[in-house]
Design brief:
This protein is α+β, with helices and mostly antiparallel strands. It has five helices and five strands; from the N terminus they run E-H-H-H-H-E-E-E-E-H.
Length: about 150
């Protein structure tokens, strides 16, 4: 694996990550962030809402952009600057979501990569947005640190 470099990116490049949002991921997210809203984990409570069953936290689903940006596109060394999200439809526990980031613009002078971001279930958008990442100039010591970390994808 190598550190990201701004010259490596072109408009239209894309990466997709597919994740099934299961009860274990929801429980881990609750433990991590502390959001114990019963709409996310209590089937009896959720049955009385407009959704009729538990829905995943919006940020749980959106969190899967992080491994795309940190490991794949742009990849190691990239730094999140901004991410605007619109939550269009609920994601239910058990849904399989395609998380897609596509390069919309590359600003080599400012070392910024701009993305269109979407999450879909069976081709239907449930989240959409846009993100900006900073891609610093890689250094030899940074590459050595990445190599030493022995990160497995």
């Amino acid at each position: 694996m190598k550190l990201a470099h701004i010259d490596d990116f072109k408009v239209g490049m894309s990466h997709t990550l597919t994740q099934t949002i299961d009860a274990e991921k929801v429980a881990q997210f609750i433990a991590l962030c502390g959001d114990k809203n019963p709409i996310h984990h209590d089937a009896e409570y959720a049955a009385q809402t407009q959704f009729k069953r538990p829905i995943a936290h919006g940020f749980l689903t959106a969190s899967f952009f992080s491994p795309i940006f940190g490991l794949h596109l742009p990849g190691p060394g990239a730094i999140y600057v901004n991410h605007n999200l619109r939550f269009l439809k609920p994601v239910f526990v058990g849904d399989t979501v395609d998380v897609i980031a596509t390069i919309r613009e590359v600003d080599t002078e400012r070392k910024r990569v701009y993305f269109d971001t979407i999450c879909t279930i069976n081709g239907e958008r449930v989240i959409e947005g846009d993100a900006q990442l900073y891609v610093p100039t890689p250094t030899e010591s940074g590459q050595q640190a990445l190599d030493a970390a022995n990160i497995q994808i």
